[in-house]
Amino acid sequence: MMKEMKLSESVLVLSCVLCVSADVFHENLYISGCSDTEGEALYSLDGDELWYADFIHKRGVEPQPTFIDHISYKEGTYEAAVADQQICKANLNQLRRICRDVPLELDPPDKVMIYTRDHLDHGANNTLICYVTGFYPAPVKIYWTRNVENVTHGASTSVPHLNKDGFFSQTSRLQFVPHRGDIYGCTVEHPALDQPLTRFWDVQVKPLAPGRGPVVFWGLCLTAALLAVMTGTFFLILQLIGLNKCC
């Protein structure tokens, strides 16, 4: 409870469980968050994002993987999220006045990971994911680079998710086409960090299967040796034929 009260100094995050089955437990979660300058709204199912509000481009986004049945949200979901932002900011102002004298606790992220959504296939569209967790308060700022060039404008960042331990996690996604030699960086900023934390991910050349290189090498050597033996045998036969004719 203390952590939730401290959060009001910077950002207010409200969440509720929308649907729980008695036979099979599924957590359909709606999260609405806001600060003085930013806002977040998110629907998730069992921890996977199904829909979030992109307040910069003024639209709803459904970042669902291709291997599941797509779930579409009804028209007006984005407009409802915009209305929730006004309520959230009003509540934030109220909580800021109530918790004015509560000191703010700062905990830096304890894990930053980068991985691809789909199996890596050079030249094919894919999604690079940067997962940040273990921080307090929310949110973190996440920046992307490709070969030192800033490509954050092409990324989307989720609403902070409150974990059961009282800390937050957040995810950023970058659409990209992998090319050999490219190096991507995910940089995280948080008030508890003395300097930004960066993790790198590089598009590597697919290696040969284990042991394949030596097998290919010795195979070529064996072929060359056989050709040499066959060539020597051929010339030996010609010499024998010539000797027979002479005799």
From TrEMBL:
Keywords, ordered alphabetically: Adaptive immunity, Disulfide bond, Glycoprotein, Immunity, Immunoglobulin domain, Membrane, MHC II, Signal, Transmembrane, Transmembrane helix
Chief location bin: membrane
GO annotation, biological process: adaptive immune response; antigen processing and presentation of peptide or polysaccharide antigen via MHC class II
Record's bilayer topology term: Single-pass type I membrane protein
Lineage of source species: Eukaryota, Metazoa, Chordata, Craniata, Vertebrata
Name of the featured protein: Ig-like domain-containing protein
Organism: Anabas testudineus (Climbing perch)
Transmembrane segments: 215-238
Domain Ig-like per the UniProt entry, residue ranges: 109-198
